[in-house]
Specification:
By secondary structure, the protein is α+β, with helices and mostly antiparallel strands. The protein has helices at residues 13-23, 156-182, and strands at residues 34-36, 41-43, 55-66, 73-79, 82-85, 94-96, 110-112, 121-132, 137-151. The protein has a domain at 30-152: Immunoglobulins (Immunoglobulin-like, Sandwich), CATH 2.60.40.10. A hairpin with a 6-residue loop joins strand 3 (55-66) and strand 4. Belongs to the sodium channel auxiliary subunit SCN3B (TC 8.A.17) family.
């Protein structure tokens, strides 16, 4: 997202802020955990790189263990900008909702369409990242677990909770940018 400040002068704090915002930022936030039946639901999974200037490529795999089951089943894979649903229960119901038009993934989120009560359970998101340095490559991986509860209707507390999370995210970004500006 590009933010334009028409009143900015060359070297003003606002133009520095514009520069920082244009470079982008990555903030890892927890996924929501309560989905509403028949609606859509974003399973959030973000894995930020520590050094943005390092080129990288990543793949993301999703696994699901339904409530009452003991094992995870592979449900989705995303590699080389192509997503593949690997479990019949999710065919035509899963969409990629992560980083777009890049193999350097930091957002590995997926979106469940037409949520059912059978979607209640634990999801596992696995990032496999290859960092490409000048003379070598370095592999890292991250695993995140998200337990989802599917409900019949949304509660007011749920709506307020989502709003609060968004506000906290804005505050975190604002504080980070303020600290960078003061350096």
């Amino acid at each position: 997202m590009e933010v334009v400040f028409p009143e900015c002068q060359l070297w003003s704090p606002q133009s520095r802020l514009h520069s920082l915002l244009s470079d982008g930022a990555c903030v890892e936030v927890d996924s929501d955990t309560e989905a509403v039946v028949h609606g859509g639901f974003k399973l959030g999974c973000i894995s930020c790189k520590m050094r943005g200037e390092v080129e990288a490529s990543a793949t993301v795999d999703w696994w699901f263990m339904a409530k009452g089951e003991e094992d995870f089943t592979h449900i989705y894979s995303y590699a080389d900008m192509v997503g593949t649903v690997t479990d019949e229960r999710f065919v035509d119901r899963l969409d990629w909702n992560g980083s777009k038009k890049t193999v350097d993934l930091q957002d590995g989120s997926i979106y469940i369409l037409n949520v059912t009560f059978n979607d209640t359970g634990t999801y596992r998101c696995y990032f496999d990242r290859m960092l490409n340095f000048e003379h070598y490559e370095y592999r890292t991986n991250t695993t995140k677990f998200i337990t989802i509860n599917v409900v019949a209707k949304v509660e007011i507390g749920f709506k307020v909770g989502v709003g609060c999370k968004v506000m906290v995210l804005y505050i975190i970004i604002y504080i980070q940018l303020t600290v960078k500006l003061s350096i």
